[in-house]
User: Fold these one by one.
Assistant:
Number 1:
Amino acid sequence: MLRIVDLDKTYQTGDRALKGASMEVSGNEVVAIIGPSGAGKSTLVRCINRLTEPTDGEVWLDDTELTALSKRQLRKTRRDVGMIFQEYGLVERLTVMENVLSGRLGYLSNWNAFRRNFPAEDVEYAYETLDRVGLADMENKRADELSGGQRQRVGIARAVVQRPKILLADEPTSSLDPDTSRAVMDLLTEIAREESIPVLINIHEVELALEYADRVVGLHDGEIVFEGGPEDVDEGARDVIYRGADEGVAPGAGAAASDPDDEGVAPADGSTREL
């Protein structure tokens, strides 16, 4: 189970992107985070595995407090957190198979990782996963030869072969056409069910969130202002999430704090974008 407790993030610019966010994700549920640009959606997802360092608060994965780990401990624990990036996060010059198997690097010794010497069972599982995501017989293609949808499937396959305890997806459909977006969401929800892995998705497309998510979390100005089922996201809930109207947001709240991750700008604290 993922548990987030009073998570805060203030960038060096002074922008407060998260304000005491708390939530849980467990079982095999698919949870969608929605909200306006700059609300803190990407920051929330990226603070979980400390690609962006939170300013305050706690993040727990089962009995491990991720926010209390040293950098050395964190490298090992990140094996349990699969990450799917908006920009795919692939090494363009490497093959599909090499990119997928990079999800197993955290399990190898430094020497074997350097030589990319993977156990036979890891290679077999990578082949099975490529078939599962619809990329059978494409293992030898370079990543830069693929379409956007195919690249995103490679990113999903890489995350799955980690055998993580949770999958995080940061805008996985934002650069894809509608049909491909649905195929990617089909794949993510299928993986959640079959592998019993919870999936937390930061997503702009509200209708996709309502169609695929078991639960929806709404962010506005760095605060969680809504949490409920897709059927609960009515006009009033959308006003709270996107306009800060009515209950859930303090009266007179100003414009959303700038969220560098949401806008595609490198965070001011120098956080990296890849594992």
Note: Residues 2-90+165-243 form a domain with the Rossmann fold fold (CATH 3.40.50.300).
Number 2:
Amino acid sequence: MPQFLLVKLLSNYPEFVEQYYSNGLYPVISKVFRFTLGWIPFSLGDLIYTFAGIYVIRWFFTNRKRLRKDTKNWLVDVFAAVAIIYGAFHLFWGLNYHRLPLHESLNLAQDYTTEQLVHVTEALIKKSNALHFEITKNDTLKVDIPFSKSDVFKMAPSGYSNLKRDFPHLEYTPKSLKKSLYSYPLTYMGYSGYYNPLTNEAHVNGLIPVYKFPTTSAHEIAHQLGYAAENEANFIGFLATTSHDNIYFKYTGYTFALRFCLNEIYRRDEVLYETIIESVNKGVLKNYKEVRDFWNAHENSAEPLFKSFYGNFLKANKQSKGMQSYNYVVALIVNYYEVEDF
């Protein structure tokens, strides 16, 4: 209870959290974890989850009779364990949910008009089409990323190295970016990656198309750097990939942002969407289809349950729109490019 009250209190002071935790204590914690665990080629966090799950099941099984005989102490043990995990979660990372919103840190507006959205979307189409044609020399061919997934992991930090020239606090070293040992179940849960707040390891689903690897890796790195909100991690991942020297990373970054903007136009005006989509290279649309086909092939009845659970988790951590929080990256993109050039 004291931990819960402390977190609730701190959530009312985002400037304090921003200064003393997100830009004070947390970067030290994060670097220590990444230095300690980043060199391990597999996910230690996934193994910890596995053994912890086994231990919890075994504990409940062996203590089932004690629940009836000594209910009070049984509950004390359970709540003590929950309190330790709750405290560790917020100390090691979770307080970042209560930091100053990124749009305030960057002095960006929150709202935008459809006219502004269309302006930025057209600029993204122009940039995406140009990169696509430079790679394929044919506007109808999809881009095939010529790197292995391990290569992408090695290359991804370079985008952050370039980005830190304008945003020094986004320095990313040492790295701790890994394929999840749970890639198969993650696929059927509908997730491209996830961040382990207890070990500071960033995980990417090893089964997703290589086309998605650069942006997913950059998104999870943003979480490692203390940006807990999904729209903010998307935005920083977009900046990191488009700041990369490699044209394939740039392409995945710009088309990543374009997809969100196109979806928002469709939500606002389907007729306008049908007009604008005609100007996107067919090859770019084929890359989008490649990703849709991957997820459609793994659709199952349990996926909505997992997403509902995570959506409620996000709502409990100041992301009131749940899973829709990812889509709010559009506001950051549009307002950022109202003051910055592509």
Note: The first strand starts at residue 177 and ends at 179.
Number 3:
Amino acid sequence: MSSADPQVETVVDLNAIAHNVRILREYAGDAAVMAVVKADGYNHGAVRVARAALAAGAAEIGVTNIDEALQLRAAGIDAPILSWLNTRDADYAAAVAADIEIGVSSAEQLRAVEHAARTVGRTATVTLKIDTGMNRNGISAAEYPQVLELLQELVAEQAVRFRAMFSHLACADEPGHPSIDMQRDRFLDAIAAAKQYRLQPELVHLANSPATLTRPDLAFDMVRPGIAMYGLSPMPQISDYGLRPAMTFRARVALVKPVAAGEGVSYGHRWIAPRDTTVALVLAGYADGVPRPLTGRIAVRIGEHSYPSVGTISMDQLVLDLGDNPAQVRPGDAAVLFGPGEPHPQHWADLLGTINYEIVCSPRGRVVRRYAGDPEQGGSE
């Protein structure tokens, strides 16, 4: 790091994003790939990730809400964008005007989209999200006939274009779980029911990251990978599938200082130096996304060496025991908290009893994001 570098940052490798998209395209076979960039691209930056994914061969973009979709449109992204989780009072008119495909989960939502289309004077593009067993978002089996009847009317009036049907798998990260086939069968039944109303979707999609990697029979017309596109396996106990983690989380060393044997370090003196040693102060803490429960449980890499975290992780800083290598570390050095090598975000997830999704979504607050690589230009920084 130079003196101009931020104290704490994430570096997102766009070439890794492109690499992962190409791997997912291979697993998808003849199906298209929708790059899911919700939650600001899983905290990697939705706009830059979307551009990198499209340049690598993704065909469409998926987001949660209309505001996320509009931000992509404002950035000049003109690929198809699906938004699938919105409240009844979402700005459907803005979505229709910006040619955002709207995921519909109820008759009430479909009515809201109809009203927006008539207000804007433009046909709305809708996708039906079918609840096949996740029991969160999606059209319930009880309401489905009502939705189909209304959709049939709106398509006939050209108020709505019926583009697609999709659903979401609850247990795809547990290959062989009986719910996977159960949800597939319910999805096929929902597609058949739509056809009985003379409603033919242009495409259907079901597979998330784990299904893309393990169930080619569920690829249908398109797959919707999320976490795998960012280089993290949804089933790390099985394989990394050749994916490359795109995010490196790192902070600057602020101070190197001696600590005498018997002295305590940080709040609560939860660590007492067992010998004369040297410690390094790293400018990242729980306000930046380094969870306090990792106290004394992680190592941080500086250069070619890894050093254990000692003492309580605080709001703004953590401390490393440099042991026998104090001369290797200087103020201003980059300390890698996690990245594509070691330490790996999956290690943090295992220690915390959570999933790697949460780990890459954790850096926040003062953390500055920057990018390396540019798949659109075929090079890297």
Note: The first helix runs from residue 14 to 28.
